[in-house]
Write a structure and sequence with these properties.
This protein has 507 residues and is an all-alpha fold. The protein has five domains: 103 residues; 105 residues; 69 residues; 105 residues, no CATH class; 71 residues, no CATH class. Helices cover 70% and strands 2% of the residues. It contains 24 helices and four strands. The protein has a two-stranded antiparallel sheet. A two-stranded antiparallel sheet has the order 3-4. A hairpin with a 4-residue loop joins strand 3 and strand 4. The radius of gyration is 35 Å and the shape is extended. The protein starts with a helix and ends in an 8-residue tail after the last helix.
């Protein structure tokens, strides 16, 4: 009976999970702005939930000795009709998902040809970028000396990249140019930016290969073997691996950086040991029993890469940004700098639609003043597309103007900042710290603060806030009443003799 009860509980949990996955897919299908990748992920999750439901139902029937008559009975909650209805419901949702993705696919027209050619060009760009980045890492100066066979292979790979960069890229671009003359200017600009970036990287690879070749040449003045071993041991590759702070919002970037750096340079067993020194204490305890990197990523993904966890972390970052005390111009600059990072974190778990909803845009514009809201309404009415895309275009359009406004605001407050610096530096002023009153109580002519006999002043006229806040005429009257020289800002000779011992009082 205990096994049957446990099997029944497991079946109920599987059914709850199935309903949740069904609700998420239904929400994705009914969204105003649908995402093909998001729908595909939700369809896969629903299929997995149905498979788990079948498995748990079979286990329950077996453990509980459920007969065919009991399964056919309408009084039985988890009968055969119930399971078949779940199958039919899953098939219906899968069909709706496929139809939705077909609707999002471009029609087989001239636009479809442009789409295919554009994707081909982007694929070539991605291939060239990936190979060049790999060569940059493989020939980096921090690496140990590369053997001649490996170096020759790197040179051959570089020649292949240069050939693709010179011929295949131009061919794909010319075909796209013929089909899409309308956006010719944008295509040319994008290709030129890509060329400049790749050419600089190829030059870096060539320089690094040349350095490796020169390092392999015999050197008659080389240090002893023991010294060379010690110097080589100082090049610790583990310092190049990224670190994880334990914040959910930082996890996608940490995982990407680890796979790109440590995942390429180290063996699996070495990665498992080294990653424990690159994460926070809580994460270290979670992965302490893992023996392979697959186990490590599975455990960390279950802890930090759940869609709802990332959504909560993004909401927390947005809340901090909304509560930040700053001007509208500073808010626009910070928003424009923060949103791409939040997009990358959500995109890693397939939850980008959470940030791109119109409700989220309405929340982000709540910090705008009336003038900026008016500009946003005008900008939105003059453009088309999803609300979030128009909002990002608006931020980019206002970014330079906001940066200039922030710079002007800081230059306007220069006087106030200078006064603040003076106030801070008063704690290190020699006169405030060393001078003392002798034979008579010293009174500040600005604020009237008194200093007892044989006590340090801790307050010279230059750092008196009341005196510095007076106008030029008021300062002159203050000095005249105190009997001070307004030119040299010093006490008359008779007062110097009585009050101060160390040196004349200069301000």
């Amino acid at each position: 009976m205990a096994h049957a009860k446990a099997a029944l509980e497991q079946l109920e949990i599987a059914y709850t999970d199935y309903k949740q996955k069904r609700s998420l897919l239904d929400k994705a299908l009914k969204a105003t702005t649908r995402n093909e990748r998001n729908i595909q992920n939700k369809m896969t999750s629903l299929t997995a939930a149905v498979d788990e439901l079948n498995k748990c139902h079979t286990l329950w029937v077996s453990k509980g000795n459920i007969s065919d008559e009991q399964l056919a009975s309408p009084n039985q909650k988890f009968n055969s009709n119930w399971l078949e209805s779940a199958w039919e419901e899953n098939d219906s949702y899968q069909q709706m998902g496929e139809e939705a993705m077909e609707e999002m696919m471009p029609a087989a027209t001239e636009d479809h040809q442009v789409f295919i050619l554009s994707e081909r060009l982007n694929s070539i760009k991605l291939d060239v970028t990936t190979r060049v980045d790999s060569l940059l890492q493989a020939t980096a100066p921090s690496k140990m000396l590369i053997n001649p066979a490996t170096m020759k292979a790197h040179e051959e790979l570089l020649k292949g990249v240069q050939s693709t960069f010179a011929s295949d890229l131009d061919t794909a671009f010319n075909e796209l140019k013929k089909k899409d003359c309308t956006n010719l200017k944008d295509h040319c600009t994008s290709l030129e930016i890509f060329r400049r970036d790749i050419q600089s990287k190829i030059l870096s690879v060539q320089l690094q290969l040349a350095d490796q070749q020169s390092a392999q040449q015999p050197n008659t003045t080389s240090p002893p073997a023991a010294t060379r071993t010690h110097q080589r041991g100082m090049e610790m590759e583990k310092s190049r691996a990224p670190t994880f702070s334990g914040r959910t919002i930082d996890y996608p970037e940490f995982k990407r950086g680890w796979k790109k750096v440590a995942g390429v340079c180290w063996e699996d067993s070495n990665q498992v040991e080294q990653i424990k020194f690159k994460v926070d204490d809580e994460s270290r305890r979670i992965i302490s029993r893992c023996k392979t990197m697959d186990e490590v990523w599975k455990v960390l993904d279950s802890e930090f890469a759940q869609e709802q966890e990332v959504i909560n972390a993004v909401d927390e970052e947005l809340s901090k940004l909304l509560l930040y005390n700053c001007s509208v111009a500073e808010y626009i600059v910070k928003l424009c700098n923060h949103l791409p990072n939040l997009e990358a974190a959500l995109d890693a778990v397939g939850g980008l639609d959470h940030l791109q909803s119109p409700d989220r845009v309405n929340l982000l514009i709540s910090r705008f003043d009336d003038r900026t809201l008016h500009d946003w309404d005008y900008f939105r009415s003059k453009s088309t597309g999803p609300t979030y895309d128009r909002f990002m275009a608006f931020l980019i359009d206002r970014y330079d103007a906001s940066k200039s406004s922030v710079a002007r605001s800081r230059s306007t407050n220069l006087g106030e900042q200078t006064h603040s610096v003076n106030r801070i530096s008063s704690s290190e002023c020699h006169r405030c710290l060393k001078w003392s009153a002798k034979d008579k109580v010293y009174t500040c002519p600005g604020c009237g603060r008194g200093t007892g006999i044989n006590e340090n002043i801790h307050h010279c006229l230059e750092h008196c806030g009341v005196y510095m806040a007076l106008s030029a005429n008021e300062r002159a009257d203050c000095l005249q009443r105190a009997g001070w020289c307004p030119v040299h800002l010093m006490v008359v000779a008779s007062i110097i003799t009585k009050l101060f011992m160390e040196r004349p009082l200069h301000f």
